[in-house]
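Renewal narrative, Specific Aim 1. Our central claim is that a sequence can be written position by position from structural information alone. The example that follows is taken directly from our test logs and has not been curated for this report. It begins with the structure tokens describing the chain, in the order in which they were read.
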């Protein structure tokens, strides 16, 4: 099992205010405490890279948005995560399974997990058991603790696939 690294917000969180310290703890905890992990049937493991972003309006009309590193979080803000799953080897990786813990003080946005034809399942008990993401309701998703993506195909050499999900900061 391998762990990934976080980019985007990590290089921008330089503030020392209490909220910035909390944001750093939330985001860095995803990676450094092993919350992001991958398994593959072969001896090699995919490399993981987690990107945290927020959506901000480009102009006053509110019709156009851009994504920027999630630097400052406010209660109720939606955070967009992209998990890059990379096969750095010269061999295909089969049975790739990636598990991502949700950050503390957030709740999963119902139906937001997606990714490259992956079978997506959710856990409500700290990652012990997983259930198919389809057919769940929004109330159940607010208690989600982990998301799992299982690739139903071998991950080709040197290829990157993306898995995505959203959370709301509480």
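The sequence written for that structure reads:
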């Amino acid at each position: 099992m391998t762990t990934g690294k976080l980019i985007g917000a990590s290089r921008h969180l330089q503030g020392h205010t209490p909220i910035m310290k909390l944001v750093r703890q939330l985001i860095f905890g995803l990676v450094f405490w092993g919350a992001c992990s991958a398994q593959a049937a072969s001896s090699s493991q995919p490399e993981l890279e987690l990107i945290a972003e927020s959506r901000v309006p480009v102009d006053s009309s509110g019709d156009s948005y851009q994504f920027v590193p999630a630097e400052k979080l406010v209660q109720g803000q939606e955070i967009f995560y992209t998990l890059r799953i990379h096969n750095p080897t010269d061999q295909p990786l089969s049975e790739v399974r990636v598990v991502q813990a949700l950050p503390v003080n957030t709740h999963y946005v119902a139906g937001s997990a997606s990714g490259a034809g992956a079978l997506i399942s959710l856990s409500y008990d700290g990652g012990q058991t997983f259930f198919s993401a389809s057919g769940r309701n929004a109330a159940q998703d607010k208690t989600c603790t982990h998301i799992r993506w299982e690739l139903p195909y071998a991950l080709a050499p040197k290829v990157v696939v993306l898995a995505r999900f959203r959370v709301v900061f509480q």
